[in-house]
Write a structure and sequence with these properties.
The complex is a heterodimer of chains A (365) and B (503).
Chain A lengths: L8 E5 L5 H27 L3 H13 L2 H26 L7 H18 L5 H30 L3 H23 L28 H20 L1 H11 L1 H6 L4 H28 L10 H11 L4 H24 L4 H23 E5 L3 H6 L1
Antiparallel strand pairs in A: 1-2
Helix pairs in contact in A: 1-13, 2-3, 2-12, 3-7, 3-8, 3-10, 3-11, 3-12, 4-5, 4-6, 4-10, 5-6, 5-10, 7-8, 7-10, 8-10, 11-12, 12-13
Chain B lengths: L1 E7 L2 E7 L7 E6 L6 H8 L7 E6 L2 E3 L4 H6 L2 E4 L11 H6 L8 H15 L14 H14 L4 E5 L7 H16 L3 E5 L3 H7 L2 E6 L2 E7 L5 H9 L16 E12 L5 E12 L2 E5 L6 H9 L9 E4 L8 E2 L5 H6 L4 E4 L3 H5 L6 H5 L15 H14 L15 H14 L4 E5 L7 H16 L3 E5 L3 H7 L2 E6 L2 E7 L5 H9 L9
Parallel strand pairs in B: 3-8, 3-9, 6-7, 7-8, 13-18, 13-19, 16-17, 17-18
Antiparallel strand pairs in B: 1-2, 1-4, 4-5, 9-10, 11-12, 11-14, 14-15, 19-20
Helix pairs in contact in B: 4-5, 8-17, 13-14, 14-15
The chains are: A mainly alpha (365), B alpha/beta (503).
């Protein structure tokens, strides 16, 4: 080994980049991802990549029903992301959205079963409020421990997921009369506690709730004093203390909000979509939403776009699998490649590489 | 090392430094804070790569790109902060990172061998979390020797040791010297330099000043070399006009999280209309002192900081109050902390949003009031000449001097009664520094009590009215800046007066 060489590649942080350049890099990364996916598709399956991409599109937006399903799923994902945004902006690693969704869904299901006699509107309000409280409680516990004893919130929120999962298992068996380990569709005959159809469409109420939450979160983070405190605490607790911010209070308050919104996501899922509850009601979306929130840098508008993108990829992957008789793993590879490129582009936006030999001029600057 | 230069951004940490070290000697590296000692040694041990200059080992030119390269050349560094794994035993820590088959018994045997040779006391099977600070340090040295180092660099090894432990360490170092090892020791403490080393090399502000044989040196001559000849600075120093007592600090003691006294029984008064300079080697409690006044430090029982408000109301006790409570009492306390982006400002926010950091909670609205901070930001940008693409550009992207202008500008804008600054001009160019001096003088003329923690003695002597010198967490003396010398302050910084209290 020759000892007299400096390192081949070094990484340095970039200064600000012009916004259009950053977007150019992102667009190029998507195009590159599509090209790489095409090569992979062709080399593995010998299918025409364009036919495959067409099939993906049909899977998400092929019929009115499919389009509505895409919207429906994107709304749930967006709702969870909106819930996670304030926590992650505060650098509080809330990976407990799964549990917060589940517990919100669980109390919603309980209300549907026990309060059948209530008028629909009142029942919806009761379900909304109780799911809020349940989710908030799931967020509050780790926050209190973090604020008071500085416990690790990542582990704590993760463990809270398991508590929620086993509680759900217990109640599913408790409510299940037929020993089938499933509660089936709740109130199948009466539709009590289900979201009503508005303007003749089934999922309008879902959209309204989630859009209101997303818009509210946008303004909460951007122009409210609370949002400012969250940003300061997230940047540096030292700065927050210096500024006279009560860090503990901010942590607890923010996690109450974060948990409550994730609880609402469970409510929307159970009352507005599936009308049932099981341990897979959250279905990993509590984790997917973390990607959405981070990629969007907690901006509601961008979160909406990314939620749609992820749901689109998911629906598309399922469609490819059925159209071309592939197993889903093959199509999920395409999803993976696209995500990898999008995430990778952020690296090139924030850093630049310095090749050997170029460093003298850098030092001279 | 020949003509070694390292540049960080716009700061030159080392400028064409040349240093020789022979085998079988102990070389002390002496210099004030920020004179580039640690940077220089980090280049030798492979943590930084020099921007210019060459390093020769045994007469051969080498490129040290990583700590591993350094080890291969027989250079080992013992850092101020230990790099050990708590849950591992001594032997496991030593074996860590060595590319050979792991045989802990052999490792232990060799450790015992090394210990015997130089007079260490290490139990190879003891877990690191059971060790005292001095044991951990010993282990670090053994770790380096185990890897066959012939050149050992110790970064302020005595800072964490008691006098007895220091003596023990020095005995070991002398044994190693007898064995032909080269040892470089970084320290601030003059008497240690004189007692242990053969030669002393001195750095000042990144430049190499010179090397002297210890036998020919005295504490005074070393201080002179370290602080340099008095530089005449053209800083205005208006006479303080009828100073009024603003703060009374009584029996202030602070313990850090390890239970060690950072500040011990500090007593002094601060007057409005004067600049009180605070001098001391870094880590002597300056930071804690300022943070205690700002309501950010837990203090020991019996400590008291009384605030006399300018309108003559009765004195208010600041100890035990949070920054918010102090703010709500209407006490205008401004603080320019040492860590500008990690404490004084929010790096990811623009100037405008940073302006409201301490005032955003005023008013009853749920929403932020952004108009006046925006106006203030524009005003500061114009008056202090802050170079920024816009008031919404994240302040993290600004240069150090501009960041400081933003911070000082905000703190002054709140019309303070007490203004505390920590290393206000560190890393700034001459022009920006003068802007800051000028701003502080203006505050002084307005009757503000200015506390100025600084590291450049020339500036302190030319700018402050009185200088309070801290040494090892104790108040070592308050001198009149107009009638003192650099050497006097330098000695107060490095050598505790008899009795320690230094009234």
């Amino acid at each position: 080994m020759n000892k007299n060489h400096e390192p081949l590649i070094r990484i340095a942080k970039r200064d600000a980049m012009v916004w259009w350049k950053a977007y150019l890099i992102r667009i190029v990364s998507v195009i590159l991802a599509l090209i790489v996916s095409a090569v992979v598709i062709f080399s593995i399956t010998k299918l025409n990549p364009f036919a495959v991409y067409g099939s993906m599109y049909r899977g998400a937006f092929g019929t009115t029903g499919k389009t509505w399903n895409t919207i429906r799923d994107a709304m749930i994902l967006l709702c969870i992301s909106v819930g996670l945004a304030p926590a992650f902006k505060m650098r509080f690693w809330n990976i407990g959205a799964e549990g917060q969704i589940l517990i919100g869904g669980l109390v919603t299901a309980a209300c549907m079963m026990y309060f059948k006699s209530m008028p629909t509107v009142l029942l919806l309000i009761v379900m909304f409020v109780t799911s809020c409280i349940a989710g908030a409680l799931w967020g509050l516990l780790p926050a209190i421990f973090k604020a008071k004893w500085n416990t690790n919130e990542t582990l704590f929120t993760l463990m809270m997921n398991y508590v929620a999962i086993y509680l759900t298992s217990f109640f599913v068996d408790f409510w299940d009369k037929k020993q089938s380990h499933s509660v089936g569709i709740i109130n199948l005959d009466t539709g009590k506690g289900w979201f009503p159809r508005l303007f003749g469409e089934q999922y309008i109420l879902n959209v309204i709730i989630v859009v209101l939450l997303a818009a509210g979160m946008y303004f909460y983070l951007k122009i409210s004093k609370h949002g400012y405190e969250i940003a300061v605490v997230g940047e540096s607790e030292n700065t927050a203390r210096y500024a006279g911010i009560n860090v503990k209070k901010v942590i607890i308050r923010t996690m109450l909000i974060s948990g409550a919104i994730c609880g609402i996501a469970g409510f929307v899922e159970v009352a507005g979509v599936s009308h049932t509850i099981s341990t897979s009601t959250a279905g990993g979306r509590g984790f997917t939403a973390i990607i959405v929130a981070w990629l969007a840098k907690f901006n509601s508008l961008t979160m909406t776009l990314i939620s749609f993108l992820l749901v689109f990829l998911d629906k598309g992957a399922a469609q490819i699998a059925s159209d071309f008789n592939l197993n889903e793993y093959a199509s999920e590879m395409v999803t993976g490649i696209i995500l990898f490129f999008i995430l990778g582009s952020e690296f090139f936006i924030n850093y630049r590489l310095i090749l050997r030999g170029k460093h003298k001029e850098v030092a001279a600057k | 090392m020949e003509n070694v230069t390292k540049v960080f951004g716009s700061t030159v940490a080392n400028n064409k430094v040349t240093l020789d070290i022979y085998s079988g000697e102990i070389l002390s590296l002496l210099g004030e804070n920020g004179s580039g000692k640690t940077t220089l040694m980090n280049m030798l041990s492979g943590i930084y790569y020099p921007d210019e200059g060459d390093i020769y080992v045994d007469g051969k030119k080498v490129a040290i790109r990583s700590p591993k390269d350094a080890f291969d050349l027989g250079i080992g560094m013992i850092h101020q902060h230990f790099k050990l794994i708590d849950v591992f035993t001594a032997a496991e820590n030593v074996a860590l990172g060595i590319d050979e088959k792991l045989n802990l018994k052999e490792v232990s045997a060799r450790i015992n061998e090394i210990c015997e040779k130089y007079g260490f006391d290490v139990d190879p099977d003891q877990k690191v979390y059971d060790m005292s600070v001095s044991q951990k340090q010993t282990l670090e040295i053994v770790k380096v020797l185990y890897r066959g180092a012939n050149i050992l660099i110790l970064d302020e090894p005595t800072a964490v040791l008691t006098p007895q432990e220091t003596e023990k360490l020095f005995d070991v170092l002398r044994n190693m010297r007898a064995d032909g090892k080269s040892i470089i020791i970084i320290t601030h403490k003059l008497h240690e330099v004189l007692s242990i080393s053969d030669r002393v090399s001195i750095l000042r502000k990144g430049e190499y000043v010179g090397t002297v044989d210890t036998a020919d040196a005295t504490e005074l001559s070393l201080t002179e070399m370290m602080v340099g000849k008095k530089v005449i600075l053209n800083i205005d120093r208006p006479e303080p006009e009828n100073p009024v007592k603003r703060l009374q600090i009584k029996n202030l003691s602070i313990k850090n999280s390890d239970g060690v006294n950072v500040l011990e029984n500090i007593n002094f008064d601060v007057f409005g209309g004067e600049i009180l300079g605070i001098a001391g080697i870094s880590g002597c409690g300056q930071k804690e002192l300022l943070e205690a006044v700002a309501g950010l430090q837990n203090t020991c029982d019996g400590s008291s900081i009384l605030y006399d408000s300018p309108d003559g109301e009765s004195a208010i006790e600041l100890i035990g109050k949070t920054p918010k409570q102090i703010h709500n009492l209407g006490i205008a306390l401004s603080f320019v902390p040492e860590d500008r982006l990690g404490m004084g400002l929010v790096g990811s926010m623009g100037m405008s949003d940073n302006m409201m950091l301490k005032s955003y909670m005023d008013g009853h609205s749920f929403f932020l009031e952004r108009k006046s901070p925006k106006k203030l930001a524009e005003k500061i940008k114009k008056e202090l000449g802050v170079v920024t693409p816009g008031i919404n550009t994240p302040v993290r992207k600004l240069s150090g001097g501009n960041v400081q202008k933003v911070l000082v500008g905000r703190e002054i804008a709140s019309a303070p009664a007490v203004l505390m600054t920590a290393y206000a001009v560190r890393g700034l160019d001459i022009n920006t520094s003068y802007t800051i001096y000028h701003l502080l003088n203006e505050q002084k003329k307005k009757g503000v009590a200015v506390i100025y923690v600084g590291e450049d003695l020339d500036v302190l002597l030319a700018h402050a009215d009185r200088i309070l010198v801290l040494c090892d967490g104790k108040l070592n003396g308050i001198v009149d800046a107009r009638n003192t010398t650099k050497e006097e302050v330098g000695l107060l910084m490095t050598k505790l007066q008899d009795g320690g209290e230094g009234k």
